[in-house]
Structure prediction request, 180 residues.
Amino acid sequence: MDFSFEYAFQVFELTFRISVSQCLLFLVNITLFIFAGKIVSSFDYDKKDTSLKKWGFRFFNMAFLGLQLLNIILTGINNNYQQSLSKVSYSLVTVSISYLIIHISAHFVNSKFGKKKIIDGKEVPLVSYSSRMVNILVFGSFSFLALVTVINIWGYESLLEATGMIGLLLGFIALSSSIW
Prediction:
C-alpha cells in the first residue's frame, strides 16, 4: 500500500473532525511559536525589549492553539455546537498576522527611510520623522485591514456598509478633516 499525504489528511480529518486548513494553521502556529524569538529579534533594529514582543507574539499563537483544541473537543462532544471559539481563534490569528506584518514592515521602513548612524563600526538605522510617518501609515492601514477581516469573520458585514458604524465614522472623519 502506497502512503500518500492526501490519505493521511483524510484519516486525520475523519478522526479528529478538523479540516486540512485547520491542520495547516496548527502547523504554521506551532512553527511561529517555536521560531518567535528568531523572527522578532531578526526584525528588531534596536534589539531592545525583544522579550516582551516575543512573548506577546507567542501568547497569540498559544491562545489560538488552545482555543482551536477546545473547539475540537466541544465539537466532538456536542454536534450542535456553533463553533464560536473558532471565530475567536481566527480573530486572534488575524491580529497576530497583522502584528507580525507591522513589526516586519517597521524594520524595513526604518532601514529605508530612517537615518543611518555608525555605532561600534556597525551601521544602525535610527528612527526619523519620515520613517515614523510611514510607520503610522502602515500601522493604520494594516489595523484597518485587520478590523475589516475580523468583522467579516464574525459575520457583521452590515457594519461595513455606508450606513454602518464604520461608514459613519469614516464619513465623520472625512467631513471634519478641515478642523484637524
Observations:
- The first strand starts at residue 115 and ends at 119.
- The chain has a mean pLDDT of 77.
- The beta strands are 115-119, 122-126.
- Helices lie at 5-16, 20-34, 36-42, 50-77, 84-113, 129-154, 165-175.
